[in-house]
Amino acid sequence: MLRPSYKMTKSYVSKNGYSAAGLSAQKRSVYKSAKDESMPADEKADRIYAYEYVTGGTSQEAFNRVPNFLRKLGVEVEMGITTAVGELPVDKLINYNSTTWFFRLKGTNLYYFPGTFPKVASDIPYKFQGRKAYMQDVDAPFEIPVSTAATNKSVVTIKVNIDGTKMNIHRSIDYSGAQKEYGQMVSSPDYYLYGPDHLAAFWRYLKYDESDPYSAFLKKDASVMKSDFAEYKQKEQPDQFKEEIKGYHEAEPVKVNGYGLDCVGIRKDSADFVYHVDYEMEGLVKRAGSSMMLAVGKLIGEQMKLEGNDRIRKDRIWRRMAFADEWNIEVALPKGYQASAESLKKLNTTVSNDCGEFAVKASAGAGKIIVHVSKSFLHREEPVANWDKVLKLVDACSAFNEKQVVITKK
Question: Nearest CA to 375 among 357, 387, 399, 360?
Fold first, then answer.
């Protein structure tokens, strides 16, 4: 039986918890609001977790304050210990330096881990999923739950207008589950855990009003953060969105017309991370006499292509997470033009096996081309015996990248 000391971390977890005495006014207000007996235990945990993350960061010390305060509120929590991906399993360690403490709300399947990127409090970071763990005072180890492809989704909605050989694109991206981590590239400065939109959202959640989010910090720290975030919004974030577009298409946009965060995904009732970009691209539409060639396959972004020795595999396949991606593409045709029925028909395909699926369904009508693309890899790990099946999916994705639609005059 694993019986590690409660005092193994700098700020240990007390069996009786901490009271709110001596806390700052802001933290005390969060604590007091959580004393409401009608508030569910998970809501109390989420709120206190959110405050400690915003003000204390990702350290084990800051995290351990959450179960301490919850216990004082009468919320039953169970402490556990594990290691992250890349570390030895928890039962193979010779010391506790690389361990991580977490807690579970008793009688639930809700787990809370030290913070990583901004997220719903009980979302399990991918690096802990599937890892062996022990709950304190329990004999047998168990495996931390692993998310599924259905919970780790990205849904991309693309609306396109063609202007000569230029393409005006509005793209909205909705990440859920562990895929939300990918959205952080456009939402925060490199030297902060979160950005100004996150901070405002956390404060609305904790206060349910538009109070100054910087009031949670010392005046000097608040002044520095406010200045840093203002500079970030003006200088750094525009470049982040431009780089996002460049990475998606592997080409520079002609112009970025707009961008924004629509939801930062830090609470259960709005858990997805959503942002949008508006921009202009050249090279995706080309003239061919009186007709045009639309590189529709490039609208799903550059896909992995495996060639040469990369097609040979001797070890198991491992990825961060099982996932599912969708693209909903709508292309408005120029007046007087129509899509070639034959070239549209060639887009339709389905490749499906035990490892996942890649499917495309295309149609045209009312002056528009409509294309729905879906891709999924169903398992975090695959035995090397399934490599050929994985290759079929990867090849189908990369083959679609080269697909074009012929647009002709009526």
Answer: 357
Number of helices and strands in the chain (H, E): 8, 19
**Calpha distance 265→176 (Å, rounded):** 8
Nearest-angstrom CA–CA distance, 146 and 339: 43
The pTM of this model reads 0.92
Q: How much of the chain exceeds pLDDT 70, in percent?
A: 93
- Residue 9 confidence (pLDDT): 41
Read off the DSSP letter of residue 270. Answer: B
Here the contacts of 357-365 (C-beta below 8 Å, separation 24 or greater) are 357/393, 358/393, 358/396, 358/397, 358/400, 360/400, 362/296, 362/405, 364/333, 364/338, 364/339
Task: Please state the separation of Cα 106 from the chain's center in Å.
Answer: 27
Tens digits of residue pLDDT in 84-105: 999 999 999 888 888 999 999 9
CA 223, 117, 77: angle at the middle one, nearest 5? 105
**Surface-to-core class of residue 7, CB atoms within 10 Å of its CB (0-12 exposed, 13-18 middle, 19+ buried):** exposed
Q: Which amino acid is at 171?
A: R
Token pair for 235? 């200088």
Task: List pLDDT tens digits, range 114-149.
Answer: 988 999 999 999 999 999 999 988 889 999 999 999
Q: What b-and-e string marks burial along 325-350, b requiring 16 or more CB atoms within 10 Å of the CB?
A: bbbebebebeeeeebbeebbeebeee
- Helix, strand, or coil here: 64? helix
Number of Cβ atoms within 10 Å of the Cβ of 192: 14
Cβ-proximal residues to 222 (8 Å cutoff; 6+ apart), any chain: 214, 215, 216
Distances (CA, A) of 273 to 33, 82, 180, 264: 27, 27, 6, 5
- SS3 call for 260: strand
d(CA 159, CA 257): 14
Assigned token pair, 114 = 């030290």
